[in-house]
Amino acid sequence: GGVAAGAAAAAAGLLVDVQTPITTEPIEAVYEFTGELGRGKFAVVRRCVEKATGKVFAAKFLKKRRRGRDCRADGLHEMAVLEMARDNPRVVNLHAAYETDHDIILVLEFAAGGEIFDHCVCDELLPEAQITRLIRQTLEGVQHLHHSNLVHLDLKPQNILLTHQSPPGDIKIVDFGLSRRLGTAGELREILGTPEYVAPEILNYEPISTASDLWSVGVISYMLVTGESPFVGEDKQETYLNVSQVNVDYSREAFARVSELAVDFVRKLLVKAPEDRPSAAECISHPWLSQQPAQHFSSPEPAPARFPRERCSGSKWAAPPEDPE
Ligand code: ADP
Ligand code: MG
Known about the structure:
Belongs to the protein kinase superfamily. CAMK Ser/Thr protein kinase family. DAP kinase subfamily. ATP binds at residue 60. By secondary structure, the protein is α+β, with helices and mostly antiparallel strands. It is built from ten helices and 13 strands. The structure holds adenosine-5'-diphosphate and magnesium ion.
């Protein structure tokens, strides 16, 4: 703690102030643990039931010591970001917080539908109308975060969950372990997510901005549409090379089952220069996402034209897709 440590954390884009009380009473007295939902390098997520209410939650156990270093501040940061995003319906809600000798425990709203990763594998791809709905929701969440100067920096299909599995419910963004607050002192560099999903500027240790999240939305969109990861290589080195050269295959047959607008959308996000990527708000108004699926109109009002040209002309979406190669 202390003022100096707080200032250093703030300069690194870490949040230090938390509002939710951190309980040191044994968590087992309040929740019954009923299985494991996920596991990373420094965290385990367990399904649990609040004994008093019978409500299901997900408890994320964050190790306070990692590689022999005190990382309690990282746990508090993740907690503070969730608090800042409390009014963001696309971000998982923080219900309570506990602390033991070893862990900070975040008790989170349970997303029962699992990861959208499960819909990024070849044999169970979603219909296009579902894909666009989930991407639109993801972008709403990202837009909301960016308005608060928060960047997620680890957006990937494993960190976008669903409220229900089948039919797919609404998305919930989780895992703010790598997220940062922008606009504090200095430039942000050197925060590394999974190479497959992170933007070239992150791999090259160049300044990080909200545009880095939009790259990841492009990767996620590609995966939901094609069932394949656009940049993954035989090894880490090959993946790095694919990302920094923006080596993407748009010729796949898998793109045949969706509208041409899908390719146009992904192409505009997977561009090397962060300043050339559209913002979350601009993405939401891309014709691929703004076209309304006809079956959702139950009112007697006539459905609007499917590709309203006037909405595209004059905007950055009017330009034809460019191929730098
Ligand atoms: P890590 O930092 O280890 O990646 P995450 O916060 O991403 O931790 O959680 C790991 C996994 O646990 C997620 O990918 C997801 O499968 C599961 N998980 C996390 N939070 C929830 C939740 N609120 N509801 C259901 N499952 C969750
Ligand atoms: Mg994760």
